[in-house]
Amino acid sequence: MINDAGLLAYQLIPLFTAVLIPFAARRKPGFSAILANAALLAGLINIGYALLKPANLAASFANIKEDGFSLLMIFTIYLVALCVTFFSAWFMEDRPNRAAYYCLILTSVSAMCGIVTTGDFFTLYIFVEALAITSFALIASDDSAAGLEGALKYFLLTCPASLFILFGIAFLMLTAGTFSFENIKVLIASGVPAGAVVFAVSLILLGFLIKSGVVPFHAWTPDACQGAPAPVSAYLAAIVTKISGVYAVIRIAIMLRLFEIKSYHTSELLMFLGMLSIIVGALAALKAKEFKRMLAFSSISQTGYIVLAAGIGTPLAILGAVFHLVNHAVFNTVLFLNSASLEKAAGAGEMRRLAGLEHAMPWTSWTSLIAFLSMAGIPPLAGFWSKLIIILALWDGGAEVYAVLALLFSAVTLAGLLATQKKIFFGKATEACANVREARPALLAPVVAMSVLIIALGVFFPYIYSYLIETIAARLIL
Amino acid sequence: MNPILIPIVLPLATAFLILLISEHTRYMKETLAIAVSAVCLLGAFLLLASALFSRQPEFGAQWVGYGMNFALKADRLSSFILLAVSLFTFLTAVYSFSFEEKGGAKWFYFNLLFTQAFAAGAVLSDNLLALLFFWEGLLLSLYLFIALSKPGQASKKTAMKAFLINAAAGLCLLLGVTITTYIAGSMSMSGISANKLTLDGWAAFGYILMLIGAVTKSGALPFHTWLPDAAADSNAPFLAYVPAALDKLLGIYFLARISVHLFALNGAMQLVLMTLGALTILIAVMMALAQTDYKRLLSYLAVSQAGYMILGIGALNPAGAAGGLFHMLNSAVCISCLFMTAGAVERRTGAGDLSKLGGLFKAMPVTAVCFIVAAAAISGIAPLNGFFSKEMIYEGVLSAGFTPFVIAAELGSALTLAALLKLGHSVFFGKRPEELHGTAEAPFSMLFPMLILAALCVIFGFGARLPVEFFLVPGLRDLNLAPETLGGFYPNPLFWASIVVILTAVVNHMFGCAASQGKACRACDHISHAPVLKEIYALAEAKFFDPYEQFMKRLPALAGIIYKADRFFDYLADDLPSFAANAFSKTSQRFHTGSYPLYLALTIAGFIIYIFFAAHYGGVK
Questions:
Q1: CA-based max dimension of chain B
Q2: Could you check whether the bond before residue B243 is cis, i.e. omega within 30 degrees of 0?
Q3: Cis omega (within 30 of 0) on the bond before B57?
């Protein structure tokens, strides 16, 4: 939380580096990439050690004093940001305004760390706005028409979100007189003026639902992802929209203690929207013609699982939602970075022009397959465990219909994803794909690392589980 | 080795050994089979002697567990049946020694010994599961027997028909055994009989299923239809061995077991059994009257005889059951003998059609005498064996109070005799056709079994006390029935009834001969060409009453319906969801145009609904 001074460093160091880059890299533009990578790598090693040091493993994470959710999110943010900057360093070597690009990335990392460590709504709002501004700039950073359109759409369709969040915060101040998560938790648990407070929090929740791209507020995500430069779309889809939206949704779900106090029906609303996202996203992905657009729709569907789990709100469901959020970030990074490699190698993102790339690009093909399978929830990959926990929690919490539907649409997701894999990588190579060559090892490195992580998270799931239990689920009960 | 295993293991091992013997050896397979079946016969004798005079041999081995043990028990009834089975195996082995049209000798004797082994196993089993194992195993040799008896497709088709009908009945039996053992809580027949089941609810269902299995095996209506086809498409040794003898022995044995030993039947079921018996007698014998082929006519008579046995067992009293079992033995002896004469005549003349035969008495006197004795016996002419068994059945049915069934059975007897008179007259008497002038008597290997069987007809007739006292009464004691010993021959009303029956048949035959201008083979045409009956006969010849053929005729349509149903479910489970998903995702593609106003409108509509719900349920109103 905000009073953890130790976590402040994760915000400040990227910010300082962002300020430093324009000066340091004025002569040598390539230097900006090195600086950004170094800063993020340092942060990642730091947070990685903080999480995984032997003492923690020995005590099965019970001795971590900080909020486990925040720590895990910081780890994920640094991980994804490092992958994207490393990829960008080789992917856009000859871009003129590279320094600005890395500045924006580092600033947004800083803003995201602020979001996940803050303890009150107002600070949260400030950082979310900061993140939104850096995102607009990032989407438009390649000066293309599509990028501008995507940025504008993102801005215009999510600005009501800011409005609702602000309005909700004001209402909260009126009714509860406090912004602090801890105080609101106490207030809701005591149940005194709960109705009005819940309404205020619901308004804030609506804002974050829009930001996370839940159906029916999803329309901007495919366009933004398609229009943005390739690494940026990975960054956006994998982490930015999740931190600026879904993270807050889970936070609020924890705060509202939805499972214990069912009478407010916010739970039903949240679950319904989650289920709707799963269905619409999975079905729309089936027929998408463009690889990135298809990924964006699948991403909506996966967000649906997280929101659905947050809606039921039991400790087990929250645990599943958090883990699915991490998994989502990991496999989306792999897929969007692969789509960038594909676009560069084959010169096309439309799926009908791609075919039979399996032999030309074996690494890309295999890593995509692993990510697809993880997204569809195939054991023993990481995505299987998070989906399993979510579905078990739904069944356990009495939402049997949702559990069955979630399972069913998991199969639809699998069908869509495997069909995509088949269209792009299997079969006979088209003419456009005849002379394609595998991406450079440097571009493959982050993707392969993330694929290994997908397998590792699945295989070493017992550690992850005990981490989630000890640092999140066990502390949910006041 | 336990002596009870000899009639099972020895023929089975020899059967496989015979398959290894070269096709070029002469008489080696035949001799081996005859020797082994003789040993089996001897073993069966010893088992029966042991069961009668000392202790009943038993054999038990752990099999699957859960009460499914491989338990054999030679009580007095089953060892008597085993003796009969072994006798027929031995006689058939001898009869086939020089019979050329038996198909490949290797496979014929393999089938013969395999059948002996499995039939012995079925008879000796005390555990219902072991019985089921042997019972279903007989299907294999049944199919092979018919399919390999003649080259060409007809025998394969008939073999498949016989196999399918018996397999369906076998499935019924399996289900019945499952239900029965579940209800009784035991698979051991001696265990179940200690605490008989009554026919109520599921037990009745289980009994009926087992009844279907037993009745089909014995060849009674309505599952007999493969038998006349087999008469045309297979050979005399098979007919004399399996349908005439073994199927009767096994089917009626099992019918007696379940009806008397395992279940306590009620009046309704008794009526069902007796009606089935009477209908089988009459319908089959009516069919026999119209036949013009030697073996085919006999096959219908074989079916009709099963009716007497079912009628007798259905009486459910000691006299009826003893008569049923005795008639089982007698009919097996007589019909088997008749089929053997058919084989002999066919071998020497090459013809089975009655219109091409005639006047063979002088050429084949021994065969003719055997035929006459067996035919007289099966028609119930005193004092041959058939008379006594039928009389016991009638007594049983009368004392149970079902006089109409006795009248039906007497009518059946008259028609049986009429059919046999027609057959005998047209084959052995009358004018001999030109081309049959060089006909010689059958070889000794074929005459020997016929003579034995004909002699048995006489011995079991004049000395009817012998089989009754040594085989039947002790056997029935093992079924917990205590029959009085047979009274002996005296002119009671039933005897006079049999005289009337004989006279009726003779008069009928003379009338028929006169009506058809002396052509003996058309002596029954005045019945089969009678106004209404003619149409019925035509339908029967067109296999209209054959459940198998009717089912097979409807099978394509049925398969079509099932296919349609399958397509429908496939559509529901596969096409419909994928169609819906496709339609939806196409719509969503058309919807996600990138049009900003559309998106905004959607988003705003979402806001409004969300806020309404949040406000409504949040309690702010």
A1: 119
A2: no
A3: no
**Closest chain A residue by Cα to residue B584:** A283
Token pair 């399958």 is found at B566
What is the residue type of A150?
G
What are the DSSP calls for A349-397, one per residue?
-BGGG---TTTTSHHHHHHHHHHHHHHHT-TTSHHHHHHHHHHHHHHHT
Contact criterion met (CB < 8 Å) for A160 and B594:
no
User: Chain B partners of A196 at a C-beta cutoff of 8 Å?
Assistant: 618-620
Residues of B in contact with A409 (CB under 8 A): none
What residues of B are in contact with residue A198 (Cβ under 8 Å)? 614, 618-619
Question: Are the beta carbons of A195 and B620 separated by less than 8 Å?
Answer: yes
Using the beta-carbon criterion (under 8 Å), do A219 and B586 form an inter-chain contact? no
CA B439 to chain centre: 34
Judge: A160–B581 Cβ closer than 8 Å, yes or no.
no
CA R_g for chain B = 30
So what's the ipTM on this one? 0.74
CA distance B562 to B551: 15
Mean pLDDT for back-to-back runs of 10 residues, chain A (478 residues): 66 92 83 91 91 83 83 94 92 81 93 91 92 91 83 86 90 86 80 73 88 87 85 91 92 75 71 92 87 91 94 89 95 93 82 83 92 91 93 90 92 90 85 80 93 93 88 74
Residue A283 sits at the chain B interface (C-beta within 8 Å): yes
Report pTM: 0.64
Hey, is the C-beta of B597 within 8 angstroms of any chain A C-beta?
A: no
Query: What tokens appear for B540 in the block?
Result: 């029967």
E-strand stretches of B265-406: none
Number of H helices, E strands in chain B: 26, 4
